[in-house]
Design brief:
Blueprint lengths: L5 E5 L2 E6 L4 H21 L4 H9 L19 H14 L1 H20 L4 H11 L6 E4 L17 E4 L3 E11 L7 E7 L6 E8 L5 E4 L13 E11 L6 E2 L10 H35 L13 H29 L3 H5 L1 H23 L10 H8 L9 H13 L2
Parallel strand pairs: 3-6
Antiparallel strand pairs: 1-2, 4-5, 5-9, 6-7, 7-10, 8-9
Length: about 400
């Protein structure tokens, strides 16, 4: 298997797979995923084989801390490198990977899962992919990043909690081992948080609503939870913190900012894939009237330079802020919305520049560039969306 990782044994305990994070190791994963990406896009089905590649490479569990069974101490820089590489191969798979890694990172910061349950997740991850995701959006509420309490409700029972509600845009819906369902109690001062629901629970109904422009293999369907009872420790309710995505302190908020850099990296990876196709096409395309590859013309050379400049800008910003965050710069986490805004703008510009230059071949489904265009445009719907990022940055700039 390309990019297959070793299984590390420490003090007699089998740990999760140790990934090869060298450039060559990540490139093998990119190439293996790219070979399946067009088929995943056309089938619009859950990408089981591709998830298997990421699992074998040890990347699904990268966020597991060494104290809890992880093979490596995660860094924000390497998380971004991983997501860029997987995104370059297949961004749908990268998004599923990012959501799982995010839950491991968040757990390391705030103990989302009960200890025994998480130990089981880590143990199971040695043998098969274990996908995790927080399911938050709702048909009426929309994106929770814009505020409001969920209509999905959780109520106390003698044995634990019962959760019921209808969620929208549940990425990974058909393949998740655990759903972390954002819900609230119906108290006068409601508690809110994520209810941990096993993915194979019979009370889960997946409604196949995802028919999207891009990221078509993410299984981002509606999910209905029909009165699902879970143990008491599967819901840790907290008071709503105004202006916060979740309750909790600065450590968790900083961790979420780090996850945001990883999602941004996915779209930089898409743009790198588009650049590679553009370069290959420019060397292979020989118009009869020209008699030589279009790569030898100054017009195409100028366009190639523009694409590379946009990607240089995106990657320097992304990896530079990630490295500063790893080095302990307290301002770096707060700059994640700024990075997402500018790096994804550059990624979109790079892909659109390639499309405009190549004309009809760029929009033909015989080539991958039209898929890269569809996928990279999906960056605009991931939080923080551009207007929210600008408002946040504007308030900070104005001292409000």
């Amino acid at each position: 298997m390309p990019g297959a990782a070793d299984t590390t044994t420490i003090a007699g305990d089998v740990r999760v797979r140790t990934p090869d994070l060298s450039d060559a190791g990540l490139r093998r994963v990119t190439d293996a995923l790219a070979a399946l990406a067009d088929g995943n896009d056309r089938a619009e089905a859950f990408p089981d084989a591709s998830i298997g590649i990421v699992h074998e490479a040890g990347l699904l569990t990268y966020g597991v801390s060494p104290e809890l069974g992880g093979a490596l101490e995660p860094t924000i820089t390497d998380t971004a490198r991983i997501m860029r590489a997987v995104g370059q191969g297949d961004p749908s798979v990268a998004l599923l990977t990012a959501m799982t890694v995010a839950q491991h990172l968040v757990h390391a910061a705030s103990d989302v899962f009960p200890a025994e349950l998480y130990a089981g997740i880590v143990a199971e991850s040695q043998h098969r992919p274990v996908l995790l995701n927080a399911i938050r959006a709702e048909p009426e509420l929309g994106a929770p990043a814009r505020g409001g309490l969920p209509k999905t409700k959780v109520r106390r029972t003698e044995n634990g909690w019962v959760v019921s509600g209808h969620k929208a845009y549940g990425t990974g819906s058909e393949g998740l081992a655990y759903h972390l369902v954002w819900a609230a109690t119906e108290d006068d001062e409601p508690l809110q948080g994520h209810v941990i629901v096993p993915g194979d629970h019979p009370g889960i109904e997946v409604i196949r609503t995802w028919d999207h422009l891009g990221m078509r293999a993410t299984s981002t369907h509606d999910v209905v939870y029909h009165d699902i009872e879970v143990p008491l420790e599967h819901f840790k309710g907290e008071p709503l913190v105004p202006g916060s995505l979740v309750g909790g302190g600065s450590r968790r908020q900083g961790n979420l900012a780090a996850v945001g850099l990883a999602v941004t990296a996915i779209y930089v990876g898409v743009a790198r894939a588009a650049q590679e196709f553009f370069t290959r096409f420019a060397h292979e395309r020989v118009p009869g009237a020209l008699g030589r590859p279009i790569a030898q013309t100054e017009r195409i050379q100028s366009i190639a330079g523009e694409i590379d400049a946009q990607l240089f800008q995106a990657e320097e910003l992304l990896l530079g802020v990630a490295r500063r965050a790893d080095e302990g710069d307290p301002a770096a986490a707060a700059q994640a919305p700024f990075v997402k805004l500018l790096a994804t703008r550059s990624a979109v510009t790079a892909v659109q520049t390639a499309v405009q230059a190549l004309g009809n071949p760029a929009l033909s489904r015989h080539h991958p560039l039209e898929r890269h265009l569809r996928d990279v445009l999906c960056c605009r719907i991931h939080p923080p969306q551009d207007d929210m990022a600008l408002i946040f940055l504007g308030k900070r700039s104005l001292g409000l």
